[in-house]
């Protein structure tokens, strides 16, 4: 079950919009802004060449606009890796189910393709990672960039998957 109520506003957001910074906000830890380094998908993460190529392409699509918006911190590496791997898994399963179909023939008769269930799980993981990174218009409204005089707004086309 999720948490109740709206998500708490980060201290940086409250300061930016002139909101009241309460005592509970004073000790919030903030990470330095900046994009983390892309992992070695095959060597370190153990992905196949095909999955590594899809994950790397997604990294190249997602990280630059988020970094320009000053949303990323160097500590966001795990979230970004999870998103890119979820994207690669999702793409692979979409192609597999498209070839095999949602129903497959077995000796016991037609059955639901097990890859269809895996596709549903992969889609759920992908959507969850997209929410955490603010990759939909509604989710982007909840994110706060680093601000500052060199703040650059990313366009909607920067976030197209």
Considering the chains and any ligands shown, give keywords for the structure:
mainly alpha, two-stranded antiparallel sheet, 5 helices, 161 residues
Provide the gyration radius in Å. Answer: 19 Å
Secondary-structure-based class equals: mainly alpha
Q: What about the largest sheet?
A: 2 strands, antiparallel
**Mean model confidence by pLDDT:** 80
Q: What's the SSE pattern?
A: HHHEEHH
For the termini, the CA-CA separation is 29 Å
- Report the β-strand fraction as a percent range: under 5%
Q: What oligomeric state do these chains adopt?
A: single chain
Number of self-contained structural domains: 1
How many strand units?
A: 2
Unreliable runs, pLDDT <50, ≥5 residues? Answer: 147-156
Q: What is the global morphology? A: globular
Helix content: 40-55%
Order of neighbouring strands in the sheet with most strands: 1-2
- Helical segment tally? 5
């Amino acid at each position: 079950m999720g948490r109740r109520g709206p998500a708490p506003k980060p201290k940086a957001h409250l300061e930016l919009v002139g909101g009241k910074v309460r005592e509970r906000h004073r000790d919030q830890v903030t990470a330095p802004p900046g994009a983390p380094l892309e992992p070695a998908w095959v060597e370190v993460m153990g992905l196949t060449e095909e999955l590594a190529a899809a994950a790397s392409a997604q990294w190249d699509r997602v990280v630059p606009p988020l970094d320009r918006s000053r949303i990323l911190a160097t500590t966001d590496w795990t979230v970004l890796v999870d998103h890119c791997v979820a994207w690669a898994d999702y793409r692979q399963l979409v192609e597999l189910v498209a070839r095999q179909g949602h129903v497959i023939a077995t000796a016991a008769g037609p059955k639901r393709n097990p890859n269809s269930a895996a596709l549903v799980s992969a889609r759920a993981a992908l959507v969850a990672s997209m929410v955490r990174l603010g990759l939909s218009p509604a989710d982007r409204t909840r994110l706060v960039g680093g601000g500052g005089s060199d703040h650059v707004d990313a366009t909607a086309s920067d976030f197209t998957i």
